[in-house]
Amino acid sequence: MTAVCGGLNVWMSFFKVYNHRFTDTKIYRSWLFKLLNYEIRQKTKQLALESEYEVDSSKVIFNYSNRNLSEDETKLLSLGLDFALPCKSPSFADNFLAFERLCHTVNNCQILDNSESAKLKVFEKIASLANDTFYDFKRHRHWLPSFSKAKYNALKSLKEDPNIIITRPDKGKGVVILERNEYVTKVNILLSDLT
User: Fold this and answer.
1) Strands, E, within 142-183: which ranges?
2) Any idea what the Cα angle at residue 181 is, between residues 176 and 183, rounded to 5°?
């Protein structure tokens, strides 16, 4: 049985069953997957990864180049220049430095007794956790479910186009697409002006 919490349309993510043997049945698992998919859809809407409203791209994207944008490219650019994909692989330095900082913090705290064996056990667990998070990183676990391969390819084609520059407007938020040659000449004119 599902329950709505406090009238806020928030689903409980578990079923209370009288007999725990029912948790191994197919019907129980199918309802759990339905609830999980519902929660994923709700969270992606909250994170604006899947929006119910469309942004008017003509108010956000200013295309002054000769490139005609596809529908996927237009939707991606309407997300803004602050949109970013999850990382493909974690940074070695960032990962291990964070865990090293944690070890120094734990070492300086008075929560541990002063025995070396207790500190070594804690440090071994932290080292194990650091190795697990870095070496067992699975890219597919961190991929956005609403981000398709076609959208990724559209983003890649925008990035690799040598004839355009994608930048921010001088005022406000948005996306400006300019021809690279025109942009470079205008920047050179601005830089050569001595006044």
Assistant:
1) 164-167, 175-179
2) 40
**DSSP annotation of 54:** -
Q: How many residues does the chain have?
A: 195
Q: What is the mean pLDDT of the chain?
A: 76
Q: Which residues are CB-contacts of 4 (< 8 A; sequence separation ≥ 6)?
A: 10, 11
Structure token digits, residue 159: 């990035």
**Other C-beta atoms lying within 10 Å of the C-beta of residue 130:** 18
49-55: average pLDDT:
56
Q: What average pLDDT does the segment 63-70 reach?
A: 92
- When comparing pLDDT for 30 and 77, which is higher? 77
- How many Å apart are CA 71 and CA 77, to the nearest integer? 10
What six digits make up the tokens of 178? 């300019």
Report the distance separating Cα 108 and Cα 114, nearest Å: 11
pLDDT over threshold 80, residue 100: yes
Query: Distance (Å, rounded) from C-alpha 7 to C-alpha 173?
Result: 37
State both tokens at 135.
């070496």
Rounded mean pLDDT of 14-36?
A: 69
Q: Sketch the domain layout of the chain as residue ranges.
A: 1-53, 57-85+146-192, 92-140
Mean pLDDT of 116-140: 77
